[in-house]
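Pilot study result, target chain (132 residues):
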Amino acid sequence: MPTNSVPTRYSDTVGEANSTIDLMFLRCNSNELNQHTIHSNWQLISDHAPLSVTIPIANKFITTSKLSIQQNSEQENAFIKEIISIFQNLDTFNISNKECLENTVNNLNLLVNQAWNKNTKRLRITRHSKQW
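Predicted structure:
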């Protein structure tokens, strides 16, 4: 529903009324994304008034690098061997309650992260990087 009943199309035909025919799809019930402006004084030679909306953009950190292991490399083989060793040496006999399970899982997570960080290489992400 229009929030402002100002015309957006100005007729140059005598006897034809100005109208509101331009559409802008915005988010309903949003104070941030439902505030638009009709600029009737910006139309110049057009018969339509420009519409504008300000869209807030949150500050967000965009990652420009990632840790990666090259496929079929010595690092990949070393990582896989380390992970196999971690699982082979995982003590599951002491898991008798929820707390023991959480400790075991947290320890497993720590060991896998250490193996990952030890065998990875930091790569810079560019527009030519593969998405996978």
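One observation from the pilot: The chain has two domains: 1-55, 65-124. A full batch analysis is planned for the follow-on phase.
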